[in-house]
Amino acid sequence: LKNSGLENSARIWQSVSIQSGWETALEAVLGTRLNAIVHSEISYKSKPPAALTIAVTANALELAEQPASNHKTPLYSLIEKVSSNCQAVLQDWLAGAYLLKEHEDAASAILALGYGECLVNQAGDIYTRHSVTYFGAPSLLHGVLERQALLESLQKKLPDLQQNLLKENDDVAQLEQSVQALRIEQQTQNLRLKTVTQQAHQFNLALQQLKQQQANALQRQKTLQVDYVVANEKLLKLKAESAAKESLINEISLSLHQLQAENLLAEKNKQVAESALNEAHNQLQTLERAHQETAFNLKLNNSNINELNNRINNLLEENLSLKLRRDEIDTTLAATKMETLKTNLEAALNLKQQHEQSLIAARNKMSECELALQQLERTRMQNEQLLYPLRDKLEASRLAEQEARLYFEQCQAELAISTISESQLAENLETLKTNNASGTYKVADLERKRDKYLLDIEALGAVNLAAIQELETEQTRKQYLDSQCKDLTDASETLEDAIRKIDKETRGRLQTTFDEANRHFNELFTTLFGGGQARLELLGDEILDTGMQVFAQPPGKKNSTIHLLSGGEKALTALALVFALFRLNPAPFCLMDEVDAPLDDSNTERFCAMVKKMSEKTQFLYVSHNKITMEMAQQLIGVTMQESGVSRIVDVDMEAAVRMVEDLTSA
User: Fold this and answer.
1) How far apart are CA 199 and CA 47, in angstroms?
2) Model confidence at 277, in pLDDT bands (50, 70, 90)?
3) What are the helix (H) ranges across 530-626?
4) What percentage of residues in the chain have a pLDDT greater than 70?
5) What local confidence, expressed as pLDDT, does residue 438 receive?
6) Which residues contact 109 (CB under 8 A, 6 or more apart)?
């Protein structure tokens, strides 16, 4: 077309407009001729390299009216608009094409057709005397007339819609201002609500206090009323006693002198009796103290007697069992020869030594395997810590790959929908790369350029008289949003700096605290075990979210983890860790519940020595049944049950008990 000078020529479908509803019929009859090029004349010597239809307007005949043939309506009569140079071409192409309306009988209408004539209905089906052609969408030109009509109607509606859009934008701006004002008012109301809520909370607290005071006052009133009734009763009794005493006074006054002499004598006797009473009270207190000491000693003696009786019974039972065992052994020895027994004994001893050596070798091998297992476990945990970021990167890569695949499929779908081939698209991209200074062009840049062109085309529609005012409004809004964005950015940077400082300070303090606790733990472990070493180790590099493992090695052992220790060694290790934390941050109280249960006597003494040393800054309260631990205590509180179902608290001051024993011993 460009070589022939026809690239800017009009098409037939751009110049034709038919009555609504018959667009498909016209497309069915004309077919590809709808896309024919309208030109005044054309050379018949050169042939184009592809299929092409040219409507030559220079050879047009005079137009003639086409009357209805045999009551048939020509399809050309429904054309409402057509350019003058295309009328002859359309009349030529539509000659012999008639309408088949819905109410007409297709069979009878077909019989009335001649050669070169056809009937077409609104669906685009074409009927001739000897054939029928059902309409289908053969090419992309399907519906072009209908779309042309729709486009013209939309262009007519465009100015009104743009005007409505301007009004809607003004309304939106006003609504945004109203929303901003409402948000400010909402913040003010929220502050007021918060203040009112705090006041209501304070009023509720005051109301609760007043209700409590009222309840106390009512309780006090009831008590006073009861006291008032009791006082009235006492007053009546006192009045009666007063009347009786008045009568007695009158009688006594008669013999006053005699009573005065008797009173002097009674006072002397009273003083003597009071002195005797004081002496009796002192003697009674001394006897009660002696009775308590005797009862305490009696209880101690009874408990000692019970223990001794139990031991005697146990010893008697053991003696009896030993005698029985001795009789059995004597009987066996008498029945067995000594030489055979000696040989069996030597073989058994040799076998025992071999088994002990095998057991020692197995234990050593088991320790080595456990050490290797611990090392592998530590390596596995470290590798798992290292795998977390790699897994996150892999997941991010998968998401990026899925996003790229979806975007590629979307581009393929859009390219399939459009009429542009890949070769044309590649040529256009090469042209853009050549024109671009950097030599590269991204898809996002092309999309932004396309959107910009579309917006420019839409902006060329109607003149916006309020554009300057809208520009000022948008500039003011942009300045406000820029200031808000700057404030948010500054606040975000401030928060990030604060977070970094907090993390740095937290790591430093946590590392210092961890090192100090580790040092105290090693010192206390060495003190409690009389040697050895213990430490705390982090499982990862990041101290804020990593785990921690305890390693303990008592003297004379090769193990390095607490899982291989005995129950008592585990208890001492835990106590060393707890006391290390108490050294780091001493607490006023420490409550322990039978922590010395798995310890033997020597370890219990070390534990008691450690508690005595730590009790300088912390008061220890512990539950124990160990005599060594109870001897260390300064105050003993026990629970006894002398009667069935009745328990009683016994409080013993160790210093007072020692003094009492010393007094009894000296006496």
Assistant:
1) 96
2) confident
3) 567-584, 601-614
4) 86
5) 59
6) 72, 100, 119, 127
